[in-house]
UniProtKB/TrEMBL annotation:
Keyword field contains Oxidoreductase: yes
Organism, scientific name: Reichenbachiella faecimaris
Protein name: N-acetyl-gamma-glutamyl-phosphate reductase
Superkingdom of the organism of origin: Bacteria
EC number: 1.2.1.38
Function noted in UniProt: Catalyzes the NADPH-dependent reduction of N-acetyl-5-glutamyl phosphate to yield N-acetyl-L-glutamate 5-semialdehyde.
One annotated Gene Ontology cellular component of this protein: cytoplasm
Catalytic activity: N-acetyl-L-glutamate 5-semialdehyde + phosphate + NADP(+) = N-acetyl-L-glutamyl 5-phosphate + NADPH + H(+)
HAMAP family documented for this protein: ArgC_type1 (MF_00150)
Keywords: Amino-acid biosynthesis, Arginine biosynthesis, Cytoplasm, NADP, Oxidoreductase
Residues annotated as the enzyme's active site: 131
Pfam families tied to this protein: Semialdhyde_dh, Semialdhyde_dhC_1
């Protein structure tokens, strides 16, 4: 059994992570730390865990584990590493953006399985990708792999309110978010750094912009991303690139028809659709922002790091309702 510790256990991503891990046949949840909810039963914060997981949040993390998932806010992982002397044999999976970008002193492997599968298998420290970054990269990387990105890439992606985290704010308040749509961080979203990094990993000469418009949706979960750029190849050829790129992918499916976001909610799937309009290729990509965009992908990475089947504990079902 893999002994798991969770840091920052009260947030949305941690709640999804615990729901998945509680039903993972190879996992024992040893300790769940939360500074804000220490001493409270898990089900008081994550009410869907009633009957599935007993115990209370701890003030401090017990380091007698095999892997630590860090679900704290962005900028908190380095603070955790400065506070705790994590043993050399303990693996770390970080769900923040602290270590996603390559740097001289950064030994974290970027954890997009469809890009870095073999490196993830031997990783000691892993940086889990961002939610928007996951959906957008899975839409664009097959084009980068073919070296055909010769112009700007335009992206519009809508996300649910859970993408903003559990702490309430003006733009996550129900009366503001419901029946409302708005753009934020136009062309400057923090996930652009990791997206560009991955594109250049496959197409080193990419010298154009990824022009990204993030949109707040009036729903709680999911990301619907649409991407377009100029590619002078037939639709059949471009679709074949995508099918070939994802032929071994455990959770990415290339569809003949454009997907609906509801098809992926509460699953670790990404559904991708490709079509051509003249010289313009349009790619649609949908994921659950908290699962494939965060906690499910983190468990997928854990499975790879411990030599398990990628799908272990992740055979989650969506609903048609």
């Amino acid at each position: 059994m893999i002994k798991v510790g969770v840091v920052g256990g009260a947030g949305y991503t941690a709640g999804e992570l615990l729901r998945i891990l509680a039903n993972h046949p190879q996992v024992e949840i040893s300790c769940v730390q939360s500074s804000s909810n220490a001493g409270k039963p898990f089900h008081e914060v994550h009410q869907d865990l009633i009957g599935d997981m007993e115990g209370t949040f701890a003030t401090d993390l017990d380091l007698n584990v095999d892997v630590i998932f860090i679900c704290s806010g962005h900028g908190k992982t380095q603070e955790f590493l400065d506070t705790y002397q994590v043993p050399e044999n303990v693996k770390i999976i970080d769900l923040s953006n602290d270590f996603r970008l390559e740097a001289v002193d950064n030994d974290f492997i970027y954890g997009l399985p469809e890009l870095n599968l073999e490196a993830i298998k031997s990783a000691k420290h892993l940086a889990n990708p961002g939610c928007f970054a996951t959906a957008i990269q899975l839409a664009v990387l097959p084009l980068a792999a073919k070296g055909v990105l010769t112009e700007d890439v335009h992206v519009n992606a809508v996300t649910g309110s859970t993408g903003a985290g559990q702490n309430p704010s003006r733009t996550t308040h129900f009366s503001w978010r419901n029946n409302n749509v708005s753009i934020y961080k136009a062309f400057s979203h923090q996930h652009l750094g990791e997206i560009n990094q991955s594109v250049k990993q496959l197409q080193n000469d990419f010298a154009h912009d990824i022009k990204f418009l993030p949109v707040r949706g009036n729903f709680p979960k999911g990301i619907f991303a649409s991407l377009y750029t100029t590619v002078k190849a037939s639709e059949e050829e471009v679709v074949s690139w995508y099918r070939d790129f994802y032929k071994e992918a455990a959770f990415v499916h290339v569809l003949d028809e454009a997907p609906d976001m509801k098809q992926v909610l509460n699953t670790n799937k990404c559904l991708v659709h490709v079509e051509k309009h003249g010289d313009t290729v349009l790619v649609t990509s949908v994921i659950d922002n908290l699962i494939k965009g965060a906690s499910g992908q983190a468990v997928q990475n854990m499975n790879l790091m411990f030599g398990l089947d990628q799908k272990e504990g992740l055979r989650l079902k969506s609903s048609s309702f």
